[in-house]
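Repro case for the chain-ordering regression, as requested:
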Amino acid sequence: MAIIVNLDVMMAKRKISSSELSEKIGISMANLSILKTNKGKAIRFSTLDAICKVLDCQPRRYFRVER
Amino acid sequence: MKVKGEKSLSTFIELCLKLLFVIGIIVVLGLPYILQKYSEWMHPQINYYPALAILYASGIPALIIVYRFIKIFHTLGEGDPFKIENVQNLKVISICSLIIMIEFIIGIFFITSVFAVVIIGIFAVAWLGAYILSELLKEAIQYKEENELTI
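-- result from build under test --
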């Protein structure tokens, strides 16, 4: 798949740790790790919404499409 | 009643199957003697050597079927039956059922008994059933993986 998740860049900018983020979004550390390491197959809108609220920016910040 | 996990219905069935497996091994090993006694007492028109060959050739696949079922119920007892090995186990069960069915279609000429017909019917159903279930399980595993990787 050519979708790259750039979540860690945004997390570094906001200076938030994985454990803190996972707690605020309400998903487990394991699942957040799957998302960050590009192993995930899909993301729920509810999860995306939560990430955007916690990190306070738009979804386009998190994904890059490789061509 | 719990269906899967520890101390559930599947661990109980696993235990029963293990017992059945041991009994099956004893029966297969003692087959020449048992068949001799059987043909002496009950069924004089039985054709000894062909019948023995058929029973051996179907007894061993039957043991393989029981062994594979033990494996499947073991994964159920562990709590996660959605494993790719179980697809393989069900495929082996379906092939063994097919072998037994074909052997009894040949064997019906040597073992003239109603039970031979019943066995053909049962293993025809088991063959197709196990094959369909293995394909279903394969799809279920794909859906499960997809679902688990949706975050």
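Ordering looks correct now. The first helix of chain B runs from residue 9 to 29.
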